[in-house]
């Protein structure tokens, strides 16, 4: 049976144009990762598995769906569609990308002269190491992600981003960057070092879930439209602005809760299971002797 769409919805799809710069950056990143992953598998098969490759590629694809696909054409018309973008940017793409342990394949996939002569000295630069050490502290990661989540969803900031393409992109970049930070202590990709005991991470995730649930519940149960732009938006679908807002809150609540809950359960089960060898830690100095650095000692 042929799917029928209204002329207005068809016009939205027809007006979509492939965002070439974003798409090229993501494609190049994926190719470099794949090249590095293939070289690592040939050199040391136990360093990085196929499921990490799958996770990274899925994360990059989720990121493209959020910012490069026709989905972005509808974010001015439906808050629920806009919220799907935010879920992809904050809770889907970042953990999948980090699960791919991106540092190892990306560094191996780049030209090695550039890695040793350019990135090596930069990564050994003490101020950069100190900054990375500070930014990846779990307390800062949680605070940055929570403030960004709540701050950009306040009506004033949200409306401001809707009225400007530039600030809309800045908003999405903030969501993605701070979510990478948030998921960093959870996934702990190389070269991260655990700063808190592993048993504290489920609590860390629970606190993150509480901030997400508070915002989503407010959206779902509020009796007025919080963002005026959606009251004035064209009604492409048979849903009122208030119902659209409630749907956005429900999507954020349900999917967000599951996404926080799943890693908490996985981490708990792993803590109760026998420890497995950490092949990445064992082989990292063999693979990247010129760029491996130790975290700076806390003063």
Itemize the secondary structure elements and their pairings:
Blueprint: H1 7-14, H2 20-43, H3 50-67, H4 79-99, H5 103-109, H6 112-123, H7 126-135, H8 138-152, H9 155-162, H10 165-187, H11 201-221, H12 228-232, H13 241-271, H14 279-287
Helix pairs in contact: 2-3, 2-5, 3-4, 4-10, 4-13, 8-10, 8-11, 11-13
Characterization of this structure:
- This protein has 14 helices and no strands.
- The radius of gyration is 21 Å and the shape is globular.
- The protein is an all-alpha fold and 299 residues long.
- It has helices at 7-14, 20-43, 50-67, 79-99, 103-109, 112-123, 126-135, 138-152, 155-162, 165-187, 201-221, 228-232, 241-271, 279-287.
Report the average pLDDT across residues: 83
Structural class: mainly alpha
Q: How many structural units, i.e. domains?
A: 1
Listing every helix as H and every strand as E from the N terminus to the C terminus, the arrangement reads: HHHHHHHHHHHHHH
Rg over alpha carbons: 21 Å
Q: How many β-strand stretches?
A: 0
Roughly what percent helix?
Answer: over 70%
- Low-confidence region ranges: 279-299
- What is the CA-CA span between the terminal residues? 68 Å
Short description:
With 299 residues, the protein is mainly α.
Keywords for this entry:
single chain; 299 residues; mainly alpha; 14 helices; 71% helix; disordered C terminus
């Amino acid at each position: 049976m042929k799917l029928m769409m209204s002329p207005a919805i068809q016009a939205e799809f027809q007006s979509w144009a492939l965002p070439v710069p974003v798409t090229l950056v993501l494609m190049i990143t994926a190719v470099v990762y794949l090249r590095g992953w293939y070289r690592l598998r040939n050199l040391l098969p136990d360093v990085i598995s196929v499921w990490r490759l799958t996770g990274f590629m899925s994360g990059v694809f989720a990121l493209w769906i959020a910012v490069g696909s026709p989905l972005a054409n509808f974010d001015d018309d439906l808050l629920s569609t806009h919220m799907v973008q935010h879920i992809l940017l904050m809770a889907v793409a970042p953990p999948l990308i980090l699960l791919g342990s991106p540092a190892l394949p990306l560094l191996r996939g780049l030209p090695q002269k550039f890695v040793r002569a350019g990135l090596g000295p930069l990564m050994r630069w003490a101020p950069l190491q100190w900054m990375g050490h500070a930014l990846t502290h779990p307390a800062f990661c949680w605070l940055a992600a929570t403030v960004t989540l709540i701050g950009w969803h306040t009506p004033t900031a949200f409306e401001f981003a809707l009225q400007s393409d530039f600030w809309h992109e800045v908003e999405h970049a903030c969501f993605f960057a701070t979510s990478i930070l948030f998921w960093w202590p959870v996934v702990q990709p190389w070269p991260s070092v655990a700063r808190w005991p592993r048993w504290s991470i489920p609590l860390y995730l629970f606190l993150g879930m509480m901030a997400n649930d508070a915002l989503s519940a407010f959206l779902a149960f509020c009796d007025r439209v919080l963002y005026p732009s959606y009251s004035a938006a064209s009604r492409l679908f048979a849903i009122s602005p208030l119902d659209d807002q409630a749907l956005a809150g429900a999507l954020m609540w349900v999917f967000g809760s599951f996404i926080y809950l799943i890693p908490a359960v996985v981490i708990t089960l792993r803590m109760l299971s026998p420890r497995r060898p950490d092949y990445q830690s064992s082989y990292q100095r063999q693979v990247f002797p010129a760029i491996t650095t130790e975290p700076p000692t806390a003063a």
